[in-house]
Every structure is written in C-alpha cells, then in structure tokens.
Design brief:
The chain is mainly α and about 300 residues long. It is about 70% helix and about 10% strand.
C-alpha cells in the first residue's frame, strides 16, 4: 500500500528560489573579491558558486524524483534526491580542498587588502540573505521531508558560517591590522566545507545503499503491525529510505484457519497502520499462517551476527 507524496510543488519552488538567490550572491561576492583582494571573500564566492551548481543539481534531482512510477522504475524515482545530495557533497568537498591550498599559500605570503568597508557590508548582506533562505528551506523540509532540500539547506547553513567567518576576518584586518586573519579565516572555512561535505555524502549513501531505518522506527513498525486485530506475529521486516518516501515490507502471521478474504483484510489493516507512521510510505505485507516452519531472513541475519 502506498500513501501519496505530499507537497511536490513546494520542493520545486524551494529549489528554484535557491538557484536564483545563490546566483545573485555569487556575482556580488566576485565583485567584492575583485575590489578587496580578500582570499576569504574568494572562498565565500567559491562556496557560493558551489551553491549555485548544487542548487541546480537539486532542482534537477527534485524534478526527476517527482516523476511517478513507470515501467522501468516501479519503485518511483525518489533516489534521484540522494544522487543530487551526493553530487553536492562532492562539489563542496572539492571546493574546500582547492581553497584550502590557496589559503595556505596566502598565509605563507600575505597580501594587503583594499576597500575593506565594502567587503564587510557585502558579507553582512550575504549573511542576511542566507539566513532567510535557510529558514525557508527548513519550513519546506518539515513539510516534505525532502532529502535534496535538506542537503541544499546544509549548504546554506555552511554559507552562513562562511559569511560570519569572513566578516570576522575582515574586521580583524580592518581594525586591528592582522594581515593573516583573512587567510586564516579562509583556511578554517575550507576545513569546515570538507567536514560538512563528509556528513552530506554519508547521509546520501545511506539511501543509495538501502540502509535500514533506525532501530526506533523499526520498533514502531512492529508495534503498529502487532496492534492490528487478528495479527499473531510479525517477522522479516525490511525497510529503506527512498528519498521521497520510505519503503517497508514484512511478513505478518495470522491464524491459518482464516479464509483468504479475512486474512487479506488483516494484511491491508497492517499496511495502513504502518503507513500512518510516516509522511509518505510504500508498505507491503506478506500474509502467512502463524507457526509455519520456513526460511526466515531474521534467522539468517541472526546467524551472520553470531
């Protein structure tokens, strides 16, 4: 049994807004970098460029993930969101490595900066824009549970941190004359970009490699099935996150003397009980008589653990 996927239009709008905002911020920061010569500003501009590319990837991923199931993709296209998130992680990590190298070079050979006041005001404006975008994306993630939008939001949370770090570096250089503060700030931002990319890639791979839902979700699933009248047991529960929905299948045990119609109704009720636990779910119950002696996935996994 499958529940409808909510708010697909909301994820598309959020993705489009992200692309537009990121593109505007990149042009502003590149202009400010040319005017100031700040490596930290360059780092922020590069991070913004990654945001543009990542938001475009997210927009494509969300649109593709929103396609209904077809003959070639009977489970739908939800994993496109995880692919989009993984690509974003690669872009962010690569940018962090390149900019980290440039930052180290500037630390060894510091260079004077110009028009620091302009740079400070540009960063303050960029930070405000990024905060507004994060708030909008947080709302969308809460309504839809979109993996790609969540990854895009992580980019802009990083962008807020990047802008704050650049602001601190520019203020230290402008008011205290710390000539290496700009380069040190850029290096710290690079490390943060790489660390954030690592977490994003890990979350995306959980979906791409069909990792089970966490223990608490699995306990809730078993409890929901066992709460259905007529169910005497449940085993071989398998779960995975498909990006736009979760997939759950399980074997539900009922009295073997029941008619097929009655057993089928119990199975349907078990599917409904599980589907109500999630915003969007595709649930399949396999009906079998209680006490039957057959090969079980649970037994196989327990033997592997031992």
């Amino acid at each position: 049994m499958s529940r409808p996927i909510p708010y697909k239009g909301l994820t598309r709008v959020a993705s489009l807004i992200s692309v537009c905002v990121a593109l505007v911020l990149v042009f502003i920061k590149v202009w400010a970098w040319i005017a100031t010569g700040s490596i930290a500003m360059l780092t922020s501009a590069a991070d913004g460029l990654v945001d543009v590319l990542a938001s475009m990837v997210t927009l494509i991923g969300v649109r593709y993930a929103g396609r209904p199931a077809d003959k070639g993709h009977r489970y739908g296209h939800g994993k496109a969101e995880a692919v989009a998130a993984f690509v974003q992680a690669l872009l962010l990590g690569a940018a962090g490595l390149v900019l980290g190298g440039e930052s180290i070079s500037r630390i060894i050979n510091p260079q004077p900066l110009a028009q620091l006041g302009l740079g400070i005001w540009v960063i303050i404006g960029s930070c405000c824009a990024a905060v507004c975008l994060v708030l909008m994306q947080t709302y969308v993630v809460k309504r839809t549970g979109s993996t790609a939008i969540a990854a895009d939001r992580a980019h802009y949370i990083t962008d807020v941190a990047v802008n704050v770090a650049v602001l601190v570096a520019l203020v230290l250089e402008s008011h205290f004359g710390w000539t290496r503060s700009d380069s040190m700030g850029a290096l710290l931002i690079s490390f943060y970009m790489i660390w954030n990319a690592r977490g994003m890639a890990g979350d995306a791979l959980k979906q791409l490699l069909d990792r089970e839902l966490d223990i608490e979700d699995r306990k809730r699933i078993k409890a929901a099935v066992l709460s259905v009248p007529g169910v005497s047991g449940v085993h071989d529960v398998r779960t995975r996150n498909g990006g736009d929905r979760v997939f759950v299948d399980f074997h539900v045990e009922v009295d073997g003397n029941l008619s097929v119609d009655v057993g089928h109704d119990i199975g349907d009720a078990a599917e409904v009980a599980v589907s109500l636990l999630f915003k969007a779910a595709d649930v399949t119950a396999h009906l079998e008589p209680a006490g039957i002696d057959d090969d079980r996935l649970d037994d196989l996994l327990n033997n592997i653990v031992k």
